[in-house]
């Protein structure tokens, strides 16, 4: 188990860096691998997505819709033994670097076999409804 909030923050930042790099490469499988085996995605306007194949397909679909880059910024992390809760903001960009969306997210992280993984992932936009 990780013992300090600083190291948990560093490990989550590293996982977020991997998420961003995987997204930029178009590697939805690499993104899905960052989640626990029992992870749940909670996207807006959709039913929960609860398995690795579904998570991979979701992120592949986002890439197919023109999202080419994700920027994640942690605002706060609360550590609770083998669980951590991250509050942050995101920005989605297209291939030209134009902003497609921005918003906030909440991720429940679980430490499994010495690695922090996304376990429950929910987000919503800051942009007004069209």
Automatic annotation (TrEMBL):
Residues 12-118 form the DUF4440 domain. Signal peptide: none annotated. InterPro entries: DUF4440, NTF2-like_dom_sf. It comes from the Bacteria. This is DUF4440 domain-containing protein. It comes from Hymenobacter aquaticus.
């Amino acid at each position: 188990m990780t013992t300090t909030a600083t190291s948990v923050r560093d490990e989550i930042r590293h996982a977020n860096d991997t998420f961003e790099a995987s997204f930029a490469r178009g590697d939805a499988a690499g993104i899905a691998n960052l989640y626990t085996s029992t992870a749940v995605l909670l996207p807006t306007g959709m039913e929960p997505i609860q398995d690795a194949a579904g998570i991979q397909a979701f992120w592949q679909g986002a890439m197919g819709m023109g999202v080419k880059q994700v920027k994640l910024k942690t605002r706060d992390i609360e550590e609770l033994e083998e669980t951590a809760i991250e509050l942050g903001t995101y920005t989605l960009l297209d291939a030209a670097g134009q902003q497609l969306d921005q918003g906030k997210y909440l991720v429940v992280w679980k430490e499994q076999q010495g690695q922090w993984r996304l376990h429950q992932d929910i987000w919503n936009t800051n942009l007004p409804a069209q």
